[in-house]
Amino acid sequence: MKKYLEFKDGKSNKFWEINLKDKQVVTTYGRIGIKNPASKINDFSSIDEAKKYAESKIREKTNKGYI
Fold first, then answer.
1. Exposed e or buried b for every residue in 30-54, given b needs 16+ CB within 10 A?
2. For the whole model, what pTM was predicted?
3. What are the residues facing 41 on neighbouring strands?
């Protein structure tokens, strides 16, 4: 599962992306257009645990206004 979201308002122009691969979740985020965005890798003990984490983060970002 891969999900890409953007947030734009008068002063912000940023993105957030999450990529779920088996038991690993990779999150990439930063300003749109930068060359080296930040990344965070989380490893989980089960696929279900990783999926729950990814879904909760997606819900968190959409609640903050990312589309």
1. eeeeeeeeeeeebebeeeeebeebb
2. 0.89
3. 26
Query: Quick one: how many helices (H) and strands (E) in the chain?
Result: 1, 4
pLDDT tens-place string over residues 16-64 = 999 999 999 999 999 999 999 999 999 999 999 999 999 999 999 999 9
Structural domain boundaries, residue 56: 2-64
CA 47 to chain centre: 17
**Contacts (Cβ under 8 Å, ≥6 apart) of 50:** 20, 22, 23, 24, 25, 42, 44
| Token digits of residue 51 | 């999926």
Number of domains the chain is built from: 1
